[in-house]
Amino acid sequence: DRLPTMATEYRVSGVAAAKMVMHAAKHAHGEVCGVLLGQAKGGSGGEADGAGASSDPVFVEDAVPLFHKSEGVTSPLLEAALAQVDSYAQARGRKVVGFYQANERNDDRELHFSTKRIADVIREKSTRQACILLMNNEGFTALLSSETRDLPFQLHVRKGGQWVLEASKQLLSEGSVADVVLASISAGRQQHLVDFSEHICDISKDWRNLDLVK
């Protein structure tokens, strides 16, 4: 691994933020996770640290909710989900740029081992600029209660051979993200959000959630 020469900015859209927050809100008493889609200039591969691969910003444009319970990184269900999401991203001119996780306990700010493994796979196959967004549960509660308009996510990138927490100034919102998130929650749209687990149980349910965020 090599040290980054310039910090990369990660810009999150209202659509992506709303889907992540709605996923956590729908399954408020459990953990959730999903995949981030967008644009990144950095190539794939595992040799270099992500933040140093390119100084161009990464745009997180969409989020695909995967599971609302733990799934092992070797799970056939996980492999099938990642393959379908990757095909979907490519068809829309995007790539998989990261992974998100929300823990069950408010005081739990640790990344799961499986999350790090999945993110490593994303770096290898999609982009070295891949990131992990960990939900800050206290920030999540504050946002939903209108006490703050800050994004309730902690940015992690790979440095020195491990996933580390980055400065909050490198995680930016695109436009009025808080307004989009709060409007979605106020309208109760989280109840209509479908993750991949639910799609497997009922294939008529669309995990793409195309028209969920207005």
UniProtKB/TrEMBL annotation:
A GO cellular component annotation in the UniProt record: EMC complex
Domain MPN, residue spans: 10-152
Family: Belongs to the EMC8/EMC9 family.
Protein name, per record: MPN domain-containing protein
